[in-house]
Amino acid sequence: MDLIMGVCLGIGLSTACGLRVFVPLLVMSIASLSGHLSLSPEFDWIGTYPALVAFAIAAVIEILLYLVPFFDNLLDTIATPAAIIAGIIATASCVSEVSPFLQWSLAIIAGGGSAGALQGITALTRGASTATTGGLGNPVVSIAEMGGAILLSILTIVFPVLVCLVVIVVLFFVGNKVFKKFRKTGHATAF
Fold first, then answer.
1. Band of pLDDT at residue 1, cut at 50, 70 and 90
2. Residues 16-46 pLDDT 10s
């Protein structure tokens, strides 16, 4: 049961990393320090006061930088690999008492995959906002992403299995819709 709970926590938190890289890590640090989240022993550093301060400063800087139109699009190019790495760390830190091979395999596939998938969707959304509003709508998108990262992170700590199931279903349907659109576009240009 601990493995399932750890994977569910990891998927929920790593998906939140796809919205904001440092907000879920900040929530994890707070939850660990308050006793609401047990971390894998090699990731106990996340639940320390120096890490809490570092994550808080990084989260505030990230949130503020995303409020600047056009710069936010540039930031997405950096945030995509960073979100994948943060997702891997979030998942690996929640999965414990398994072999390192299984821990890191789950972290890379489930954590990095879900963080990367959602970050890709947010980058497309921000690009569409820039194209349709000239960047004026981007701060609204950024605030929604920040709120989503905070809410998803907290809900994952409280209801990990439920959030994990919802995340999997949503990512499946969104991914399926995007795949069909690209497949349809690909066939249309080939003929």
1. low
2. 999 999 999 999 999 999 999 999 999 999 9
| pLDDT at residue 4 in the model | 92
Q: Is the dihedral of CA 94, 97, 100, 105 positive or negative?
A: negative
Domain ranges of the chain: 2-190
Could you tell me what percent of the chain has a pLDDT over 90? 70
Kindly compute the dihedral angle of the four CA atoms of residues 167, 168, 173, 177, in this order, to the nearest 10 degrees. 90
Tell me whether residue 97 is exposed, middle or buried, using C-beta atoms within 10 angstroms of its C-beta: 0 to 12, 13 to 18, 19 or more.
exposed
User: Do residues 120 and 35 lie in contact, with contact meaning Cβ atoms separated by under 8 Å?
Assistant: no
The secondary structure element, H or E, covering residue 73 is: helix 71-94
State how far the Cα of 90 lies from the Cα of 16, in Å rounded to an integer: 10
The angle at the Cα of 37, spanning 35 to 40, to the nearest 5 degrees, equals 115
How many angstroms separate the CA atoms of 120 and 123, rounded?
Answer: 5
Distance CA 113, CA 50 (A): 28
Q: Which of 121, 125, 136 is nearest to 170 (CA)?
A: 121
